[in-house]
Design goal:
With about 475 residues, the chain is α/β, with parallel strands linked by helices. About 35% of the residues lie in helices and about 25% in strands. The chain has 3 domains: about 130 residues, 3-Layer(aba) Sandwich (Rossmann fold), CATH 3.40.50; about 180 residues, Dihydrodipicolinate Reductase, domain 2; about 100 residues, ACT domain (Alpha-Beta Plaits, 2-Layer Sandwich). The protein is built from 15 helices and 17 strands. The strands form 2 sheets. Strands 7, 8, 9, 10, 11, 12, 13, 14, 15, 16 and 17 form an 11-stranded mixed β-sheet that branches. A 6-stranded parallel β-sheet has the order 3-2-1-4-5-6, sandwiched between helices. Strand 5, helix 6 and strand 6 form a beta-alpha-beta unit. Helix 5 runs parallel beside helix 6 and helix 6 runs parallel beside helix 11. The longest helix is centred in the N-terminal third of the chain and has 18 residues. This is Homoserine dehydrogenase. InterPro entries: ACT-like_dom_sf, ACT_dom, Asp/hSer_DH_NAD-bd, HDH, HDH_cat, HDH_CS, NAD(P)-bd_dom_sf. Pfam families: ACT (PF01842), Homoserine_dh (PF00742), NAD_binding_3 (PF03447). It is an enzyme of class 1 (oxidoreductase).
């Protein structure tokens, strides 16, 4: 076979890692692929930086550096285009142009695929080319290949993943050091774990992109990011992490998808797929609850294999480059194959995708952690439990703890130094309830004059 020529669109951290891995493991990669893989050209806005990265590699003298991405797409010698630009619009345009030019595409762009995946996969199918995207989810963890190929005999029941290293680092530090979110976020930014603008990470958007892609592969449904429920970690307080520990749980930001069937509030059968990202209580004894720092982990439950765990580095130059190069090797192996025999992008044949709906969050059934700051007086607990009982929501565990602070003042005193209403925290774990029902209950609880602060609600998953 001829040497496979690759063009890189973008050469930041991951692009530099791709160069390093290809050079260092060149012999091993060629033995596996059956032919050599070489980078022929790189497109970058910062030419000086790109040239310095390229020049530092042994093969750099033979690599063209250009500011024009379309020059790479037009090059007839280039077989595979690797998109490492990120973002939605420019990346979408260039990927579609590369496909139209008959190029195979490798991308690490989860946002692009979560939002425009249906269009991109349809274009690739029409052209008979491959779009590979292992690096788009969980960095160096081969979770896409596991879902699409290794677990292909299974009916996937649920997936739960720590798929954003920034938020996992923040939550780990909050738990270990007892610090509040804002303090740990600043430390994460100082250490380089969080961007200057960390919105995509801390609001759960990045994790939702990845969860959307995994759900599509697991259940054979189109990518539907717009239907994913997304809630970040910005409102988490150190005291909730501490209370969760006392109850035997840890809090992680999870991307969850679940095949489900139950009855809604009217008793009508509801079937579909849950797709949600939010802070979640997990039993401390679960392996995934003990994933710390910036590491990622994904738990997959299949009907035949049971529960499996995939753990590793979810970001970084070489972990992500590992996934990019693995995709390059896969494409080389399939380069001469009939397009009809390519592994389907979303695991299922394109004409066999399911119309299984993504459920609205109001129809999700789960259990809950609730924290209520209430007046410390007789009858309050009875009021709270009565409202829950009226909605058929039962309590699994209950703690009462002295409030840490009273409106920012010394406990027992109001802002003027006079006696304040004594306050206490009620912390409850509930059994399963429908989200819509819980929303109604929380509205009633919040309206009680004895409830003195916004109620904290965190969903809980046993992951059994």
């Amino acid at each position: 076979m001829k040497v496979i020529q690759v063009g890189l669109l973008g050469i930041g951290t991951v692009g530099a890692g791709v160069f390093q891995v290809l050079q260092r493991n060149q012999e091993e990669i060629q033995r596996r692929a059956g032919t050599a893989i070489e980078i022929r050209a790189v497109a970058a806005r910062n030419l000086a930086r790109a040239q310095s990265i390229v020049a530092a590699t042994p093969a750099g003298a033979h690599v063209k550096v250009t500011a024009d991405a379309r020059e790479i797409i037009r090059d007839p010698e280039i077989d595979i285009v690797v998109e490492l630009i990120g973002g939605y619009d420019t990346a979408r345009t260039l990927v579609l142009e590369a496909i139209a030019a008959g190029k195979h595409v490798v991308t690490a762009n989860k946002a692009l695929l979560a939002v425009h995946g249906a269009e991109i996969f349809a274009a690739a199918r029409a052209q008979g080319v491959i779009v590979a995207f292992e690096a788009a989810v969980a960095g160096g963890i081969p979770i896409i290949k596991a879902l699409r190929e290794g677990l292909t005999a299974n009916r996937i029941q649920w997936i739960a993943g720590i798929i954003n290293g920034t938020t996992n680092f923040i939550l780990s530090e909050m738990r270990d050091k007892g610090l509040d979110f804002d303090v740990v976020l600043q430390e994460a930014q100082r250490l380089g774990y969080a961007e200057a603008d960390p919105t995509f990470d801390i609001e759960g958007i990045d994790a939702a992109h990845k969860a959307t892609i995994m759900a599509a592969i697991a259940y054979g449904i189109p990518v539907q990011f717009d239907k994913a429920y997304t809630e970040g970690i910005t409102q988490l307080a150190a005291q909730d992490i501490r209370y969760a520990e006392q109850l035997g749980y840890r809090i992680k930001l999870l991307g969850i998808s679940k095949r489900t069937a139950h009855r809604d509030a009217s008793g009508k059968p509801v079937g579909g797929v849950e797709l949600r990202v939010h802070p979640t209580l997990i039993p401390a004894k679960r392996l995934i609850a003990n994933v710390e720092g910036a590491m990622n982990a994904v738990v997959v439950n299949g009907d035949a294999v049971g529960t499996t765990l995939y753990y590793g580095k979810g970001a970084g130059a070489e972990p992500t480059a590992s996934a990019v190069v693995a995709d390059l090797v896969d494409i080389v192996r399939l380069h001469a194959a009939d397009p009809q025999h390519h592994v389907p992008y979303l695991a299922f044949q394109h004409d066999a995708l399911s119309n299984l709906p993504v459920l609205p969050m109001s129809e999700v059934v789960t259990s809950y952690y609730l924290r209520l700051r209430v007046a410390d007086q007789a009858g309050v607990l009875a009021q709270v439990t009565r409202i829950l009982a009226d909605a058929d929501i039962s309590i699994d565990a209950l703690l009462q703890r002295e409030a840490d602070e009273v409106n920012g003042a010394t406990p027992g005193l109001n802002g003027e130094g006079t006696q304040a209403v004594p306050q206490t925290d009620l912390i409850m774990l509930t059994h399963e309830a429908r989200e819509g029902t819980m929303n109604d209950v929380l509205a009633k609880l919040q309206a009680l004059p004895t409830v003195l602060a916004p109620i904290v609600r965190i969903r809980k998953e046993e992951l059994t």
